[in-house]
């Protein structure tokens, strides 16, 4: 079993749609959780950190469920510019090691 | 926010040559830096953790003699791909934690990456 698993997609949605991604992690000692966005041929950029029960930033909402060991990312009112790969990132459980999920590809179409 | 730079951004080289990639933290000090490799349509895979003033820690399956890491200062880590071969062609990305928060809560900032193509 992979340490961090994501649905690879792709998710093809129209503009204005709401889309949700899930990510599961295997190490129950993990402490920090992040969502990164990666555009084609670019480096990942931090989208949101998820520290406790979740947080919201504009159209983006991240949720953490420690009991079930998963985090989610909800994007409301999708924009064309949201098209990217979204990486679930889990950190901690005994060090600085950061584990990336394989990413979920999102295509938002007009 | 914190900025991490990488140089060069593109490298094309012949098989058998060595390639050095630099990773710099521009406005903060980083005692630890991470090196990743990403193949097309795959996620980032951690290769090694670079520690300032000491030996790097390599992930399982990564040859330390193949991928030499030097972290000589608090703002610079270098990755040298020795005797590169076509299968080493990949996107190499470094990152550094910002140090603003403790331990696991540190945000990682990524360099822009280096695309290596070995012919």
Give start-end ranges of low-pLDDT stretches of chain A. Answer: none
The termini of chain A sit apart by 37 Å
Decide which structural class fits the backbone of chain A. mainly beta
What would you call the shape of chain A? globular
> CA-to-CA gap between the ends of chain B?
37 Å
Oligomer: heterodimer
Distinctive features:
heterodimer; A: 110 residues; 6-stranded mixed beta sheet; B: 119 residues; mainly beta; 4-stranded antiparallel beta sheet; 0% helix; globular
Question: What is the secondary structure topology, with strand pairs?
Answer:
The complex is a heterodimer of chains A (110) and B (119).
Chain A: E1 4-6, E2 11-14, E3 19-25, E4 30-38, E5 45-50, E6 54-57, E7 60-65, E8 70-75, E9 84-92, E10 98-100, E11 104-109
Parallel strand pairs in A: 2-11
Antiparallel strand pairs in A: 1-3, 3-8, 4-5, 4-9, 6-7, 7-8, 9-10, 9-11
Chain B: E1 4-7, E2 10-13, E3 19-25, E4 32-38, E5 45-51, E6 57-58, E7 67-73, E8 76-81, E9 90-97, E10 108-110, E11 114-118
Parallel strand pairs in B: 2-11
Antiparallel strand pairs in B: 1-3, 3-8, 4-5, 4-9, 5-6, 7-8, 9-10, 9-11
